[in-house]
Amino acid sequence: xxxxxxxxxxxxxxxxxxxxxxxxxxxxxxxxxxxxxxxxxxxxxxxxxxxxxxxxxxxxxxxxxxxxxxxxxxxxxxxxxxxxxxxxxxxxxxxxxxxxxxxxxxxxxxxxxxxxxxxxxxxxxxxxxxxxxxxxxxxxxxxxxxxxxxxxxxxxxxxxxxxxxxxxxxxxxxxxxxxxxxxxxxxxxxxxxxxxxxxxxxxxxxxxxxxxxxxxxxxxxxxxxxxxxxxxxxxxxxxxxxxxxxxxxxxxxxxxxxxxxxxxxxxxxxxxxxxxxxxxxxxxxxxxxxxxxxxxxxxxxxxxxxx
Length: 307
Ligand code: HSE
Known about the structure:
Blueprint: E1 4-14, E2 23-39, E3 43-47, H1 59-70, E4 76-82, H2 93-108, H3 115-130, H4 136-143, E5 146-150, E6 155-159, E7 165-172, H5 180-186, H6 194-212, H7 216-221, H8 228-232, H9 239-248, E8 253-256, E9 263-268, H10 273-285, E10 291-296, E11 303-304
Parallel strand pairs: 3-4
Antiparallel strand pairs: 1-2, 1-11, 2-4, 2-5, 5-6, 7-9, 7-10, 8-9
Helix pairs in contact: 1-2, 1-3, 2-3, 2-4, 3-4, 9-10
The structure holds L-homoserine.
Main location: cytoplasm
InterPro entries: GHMP_kinase_C_dom, GHMP_kinase_C_sf, GHMP_kinase_N_dom, GHMP_knse_ATP-bd_CS, Homoserine_kinase, Ribosomal_Su5_D2-typ_SF, Ribsml_uS5_D2-typ_fold_subgr
GO molecular function, one term: homoserine kinase activity
C-alpha cells in the first residue's frame, strides 16, 4: 500500500442563484493541492499559507481526524496543504481542501468509499470554517461537474455539464470578514413567501433541465434568485452594475458565487468572454473596487495529481 498521496481539488461555485445550499458546480479557475503522508502517530499540518495549523481548526485536519476515528486507523498522518483557491471569496476554498483530503485519505488507506461517503467526510471538515455543514461546495469539489445535494439522508446527484458551458468569475479585491460565510448566512431571510418560493423552484428546475439537456441558454436564463441574492447583494460593492454590465455584454445569467463576494456570469464558448469580463470589471470599478476576472469552465472532481 502507498505511504504518500497527492490530490488536487477544484474551486466551485455554489447556489447558481435559486439552488441555495443545493446546487454546486466545480470550476477550473483554481485548485488546492493536498499531500497526505503516513507517519507514526498524530496529525500534523504543514503549509506555507495563512491557515490554521491546529488540526481542530483546520478543514483538512478535521477531515483526517473524523476519518481516522471512523475507520479506527492508528497511523499518524502528515497533511501538506498548498492553497490555490482564494479563501473567503465564494469559490469553495475550504471545501477544496476538505475534498482533496477526503479523497486522498480514502486512497492512502484503501477504503474505496462511495461518492456520498466522501462528500459526507469532506463536509464534516468544512464545519471548521463555515460554522455549519452544507454540502454544495464539497460535493462539487469531490465529484466534479454539476451536483444536486439532497439531504436527510445525504444523496448527491451528479450531472455532466455541457461541454460548451463557460463562466466568467469576477473576484473583487476586498477585505473579507474572517467568518464570512457565517456573516453572509446571517443576512438571509428565515421565512420566505410562497410566491418567491414558486419562482425560485421554477428556475431551479430550469437549471437542472438545462444541465440534463446540455443547454447553456436554459441554464443561464434560469439563474434568477428572488430570495438569497437580494438579501446579500448589499455586501458586494457595485453588484447590480456588475450584473447589468455582464448581461449587456452577452452573459446568459449572472449571480453571486456561493456566499460572495465574487460574482459569476454564465455563458458559452462561442460568446465574447473577454467582453463579459471587462464589463464586470467596469461594474466593480463604478463602486471604486478593483477585481480579478477569470474565464473558466466546469472541472472534474478531486483526483490523484498524477492523473
Ligand atoms: N450555499 C452556501 C451559502 C455556500 O450560500 O451560504 C457558501 O459556501
